[in-house]
């Protein structure tokens, strides 16, 4: 922490030196302009002072230009406060000398010195270390001018009190501004470090995510090969290629076949999810008639609810078609209906479609199952997230995440309405085929 603060302080000092070098031309030009604008007024009252005014003004310009030149030298950057303070002190001396030589009243001198105090405090970001020599010099110069015969219209004590007060305030003001700049600089530096750390953490997460996606893809590929072999032999057994099977054996083979196909779907989901997150999954939207797809879903669901007090209801979807990738839409409905079967122990599961507008169709999967708690809904479509009921029922928590991403890829979305213990309704909203 101390090391970081030390680096910040060094950077801050370098930044301050650069800012001072940038501000000196502006402050010098402002001072020269004010003195030049005051010349006509001085001439209108005291024309005999023109020669002295011109000489002093030329010297002031020389001091300002010298200060600008010196602060622009990179090798003199460590001494920039000293150079700037010296420039301001010389201007105080020249202004005071002029008023002493022409024996003007001290009121104008006090005004000019006050202008220098306020101007340096506001325009030059050098802090109290740069401001206090100018403040002391301004008060000392005014006292010297009074001692040399300058007589102000206002009592001297009032001028000295006012100038001393303003000098002190200018030092405090410079210290305050410098402190504020330092605090803001520290905050900016800390924010920059935090952003750098966050960026590095994001890069690490991206690398880890890429490794995870590659791992999932490799595992999925490795699993699909033996699964396909198993399913091939199971199909051959079911067809009687190796001889007739007893009723008990047929039942076992059918169970193995269903379980194997479910596992193939799971592996496919893992592979697709890794492709989506890697940006490599593509969809091929085309016209998809919903009724044939619903008929296929009936063939999938009805055997899985057989023997359970659950009724599967499929409403006709004639004349309804959507723009979608048929295989991906089938995959989405398979995931939604699998969840409905898993979490509905009694009641009904409904599959139906409704035109939501002239441009979209909504496909609904509705059940009377365990439902989803309200606080779990925001996380429902996150990969590998499982609700409490999902953890109890088993699974890996990728079906809904994949389905939502597939729907988005096809120009649609998935909506959910659910309440704990009262069932759920998932809605797949897709573009409608225009007649």
Offer a concise description of the structure:
Helix content is 67%, strand content 10%. It is built from eleven helices and seven strands.
Radius of gyration, whole Å: 42 Å
N- to C-terminal distance: 69 Å
Q: Percent range for helical residues?
A: 55-70%
Taking the sheet with the most strands, its summary is: 5 strands, mixed
* Number of spatially distinct domains: 3
Strand content: 5-15%
Which structural class is indicated by helix and strand composition? alpha+beta
Low-confidence stretches: none
Secondary structure tally: strands: 7
Strand order of the largest sheet: 2-4-5-7-6
* Count of helix runs: 11
Rough shape? rod-shaped
Order of helices and strands: HHHHHHHEHEEHEEHHEE
On the 0 to 100 scale, the average pLDDT is: 84
């Amino acid at each position: 922490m101390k090391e970081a603060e030390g680096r910040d302080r060094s950077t801050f000092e370098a930044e301050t030196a650069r800012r001072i070098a940038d501000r000196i031309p502006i402050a010098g030009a402002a001072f020269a302009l004010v003195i030049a604008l005051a010349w006509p007024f001085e001439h209108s009252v005291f024309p005999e002072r023109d020669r002295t005014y011109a000489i002093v003004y030329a010297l002031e310009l020389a001091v300002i230009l010298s200060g600008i030149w010196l602060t622009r030298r990179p090798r003199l950057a460590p001494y920039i406060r000293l150079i700037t303070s010296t420039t301001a002190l010389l201007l105080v001396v020249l202004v005071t000398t002029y008023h002493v030589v022409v024996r003007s009243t001290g009121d104008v001198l006090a005004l000019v010195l006050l202008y220098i105090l306020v101007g340096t405090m506001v325009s030059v970001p050098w802090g109290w270390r740069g401001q206090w020599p100018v403040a002391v010099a301004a008060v000392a110069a005014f006292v010297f001018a009074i001692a040399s015969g300058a007589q102000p219209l206002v009592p001297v004590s009032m001028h000295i009190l006012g100038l001393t007060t303003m000098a002190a305030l200018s030092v405090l003001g410079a210290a305050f501004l410098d402190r504020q700049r330092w605090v803001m600089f520290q905050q900016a530096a800390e924010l920059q470090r935090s952003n750098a750390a966050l960026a590095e953490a994001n890069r690490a997460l991206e690398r880890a995510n890429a490794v995870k996606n590659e791992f999932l893809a490799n595992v999925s590929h490795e699993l699909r090969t033996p699964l396909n072999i198993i399913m091939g032999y199971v199909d051959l057994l079911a067809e009687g290629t190796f001889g007739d099977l007893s009723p008990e054996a047929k039942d076992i083979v059918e169970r193995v076949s269903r379980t194997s196909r479910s596992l193939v779907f799971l592996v496919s989901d893992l592979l697709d999810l890794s492709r989506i997150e890697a940006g490599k999954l593509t969809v091929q939207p085309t016209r998809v008639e919903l009724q044939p797809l619903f008929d296929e879903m009936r063939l999938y669901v009805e055997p899985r609810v057989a023997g359970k007090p659950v009724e599967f209801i499929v409403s006709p979807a004639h004349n309804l078609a959507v723009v979608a990738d048929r295989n991906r839409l089938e995959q989405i409905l398979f995931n939604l209906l699998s969840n409905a079967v898993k979490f509905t122990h009694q009641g009904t599961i409904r599959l139906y479609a409704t035109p939501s507008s002239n441009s979209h169709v909504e496909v609904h999967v509705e059940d009377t199952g365990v439902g989803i708690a309200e606080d779990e809904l925001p996380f429902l479509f996150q990969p590998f997230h499982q609700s409490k009921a999902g953890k109890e029922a088993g699974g890996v928590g990728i079906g809904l995440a994949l389905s939502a991403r597939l729907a988005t890829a096809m120009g649609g979305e998935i909506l959910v309405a659910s309440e704990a213990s009262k069932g759920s309704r998932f809605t797949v909203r897709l573009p409608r085929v225009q007649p």
